Structure formats: structure tokens, C-alpha cells
Amino acid sequence: MKFFAAALGLAATLVPQVTAHYRWTSLIVNGTTTSAYQYVKPNTNINSPVTVVSSNDMTCNAGASAAPGIAWAKAGSVIGFALDTPIFHPGPINVYMAKVPTGQTAATFTGTGKVWFKVAQLGATTDGGSTIKWPADNLSSFSFTIPSKLVSGDYLVRIEHIALHTASAYGEAQFYISCGQIHVFGTGTSSPSSSSLVAIPGVYTGNEPGLLINIWWPIPVTYTQPGPAVWS
Ligand SMILES: *[C@@H]1O[C@H](CO)[C@@H](O)[C@H](O)[C@H]1NC(C)=O
Ligand SMILES: *[C@@H]1O[C@H](CO)[C@@H](O)[C@H](O)[C@H]1NC(C)=O
Ligand SMILES: [Cu+2]
User: Fold this and answer.
1) Does the CB atom of residue 72 touch ligand 1 within 6 A?
2) Could you give the count of Cα atoms lying within 13 Å of 14 in the half-sphere of its Cβ?
3) Residue 20 — pLDDT band, cuts 50, 70, 90?
4) Residues with Cβ < 8 Å from 55, sequence gap 6 or more?
5) Locate the Auxiliary Activity family 9 catalytic domain: which residues (predicted)?
6) Is residue 166, in this structure, part of any structural domain at all?
7) Does the chain have fewer CB atoms within 10 Å around its N or its C terminus?
8) Residue to mutate, 27, 28, 29, ligand 1, most ligand atoms under 8 Å from C-beta
9) How far is the CA of 72 from the centre of ligand 1 (A)?
10) pLDDT of amino acid 220
11) Structural domain contains residue 223
12) What is the atom index within ligand 1 of the atom nearest the CA of 34?
């Protein structure tokens, strides 16, 4: 009996650590971490990464649905995403935004179409082949600035951490994705030109040098961030 209880206790403490990946569960707005899935679209993907870059799951993760809230955030202010578990795989971060089309809200919009532009990224630190370091290692949140000139309206904000530990084979880069629902307010009047927008899925083929890469050996001399340039 005693052994059984101990075994159960061991299982309860070990299993989540073995199976649980890190998830972007909350938005950070005005310096406050909001409740999990209050403004972040819930999904049905308990803890697995998305690996098929052509899948609709790439947009806002598998089974994404409307979150209850839309967070008001000022153009030019810092917002972010908090994780339930610190990042423990090596790789970069990208953040994209999409303006919600007329007639929809950030809650109803699923992010389809050529609507996305990149607003932030965090890559690797290289030194010509001696070392490669990933500044995203062990992060429990990632924050960035909403472009101050961005026109007001509802937006989706999509964050991805891309784990590259097995990415030397095609289709083995792992995407950890969430989408937040925000309303940007302010005095901005700008939007990215339509020719600079990308679709997700569509933005990646999986053959990019930053996605199909052996990060272990030989140590990469440089690292090429996947996706378009940050809109500026
Ligand atoms: C952030 O602060 C602004 C005021 O500057 C406020 O209107 C907005 O509702 C706040 N957002 C959240 C999510 O609390
Ligand atoms: C991340 O945490 C692990 C485990 O605590 C540690 O070994 C590693 O050095 C940390 N990495 C960074 C970049 O801080
Ligand atoms: Cu893993």
C-alpha cells in the first residue's frame, strides 16, 4: 500500500514534466500578465508542437477557437505573451500581427489569408562557428512593442517558438504557437503594404535555412531567421 502510494506520487510528479511542453497561455498588457486564455485563443493541442508547415494548425495552433476577451493595447506600448513552462528547446521566436477584416472581430477572425506581418523576432547569437546561443532559452515570457504608427483596430497577434533540436531532417522543426486577440488604439495611420503581407500557413516551405538546419554540428557560422523582415 505504502509502495503503491509512493509510486502514484512519483508518477504524478514525473508525468507532467515528461509530457508537458511549453505553451503561450497569456497576454501581457500594460505590464500585467492576464489570465490564461482570457485573450489568447484556446486550442485543442494539449502539448504537442505543430510540425507540418502547410497545415492550417500553423495559423493559431490546432483547434483554435475564440477567447472571451479582446485586450485594448495602445500603439507604441509593450505587450507580450507569458508561458506556462519556460522554453526548454533551442530555437528562435517570431511574432506576427494581422489586421482583422471588416465585419469580423479579433474573437471571430481565424487568421486566414495573406494578412500577416512580422513585428518582432529573437534569433541566435553566433560567432563564426565556435558557439551558437539561443536567447529564447529558459524564457517564461516574451515582450515586444506594437508599432507606434500602426492604424487602430482589432488585430490578431501570433507568437511562435520554433524548436530546432531535431531540425536537421525535413519536417522536424517544431512550432509552439498561440494567437492573442487585441484592439490597438492610438493615433497611428499606417499599415504594411499588401505586397509585404504573408499567409500562415504559406509563409514557410520547411526548406528555409533557419528551419532545415543541424544546430549541433558543425556549429552554424550564422543563423538566418525564418520568415519576412520585421515591418518597420
Ligand atoms: C491598458 O491600458 C489602457 C489605458 O492606457 C486601457 O484602456 C486598456 O483597457 C488596458 N488594457 C488592458 C488589457 O487592461
Ligand atoms: C537554462 O536552464 C538550464 C537548466 O536549469 C541550464 O542548464 C541552462 O544553462 C540555462 N540556459 C540559459 C541560457 O540560461
Ligand atoms: Cu520536446
Assistant:
1) yes
2) 6
3) confident
4) 201
5) 21-217
6) yes
7) N
8) 29
9) 5
10) 98
11) no
12) 13
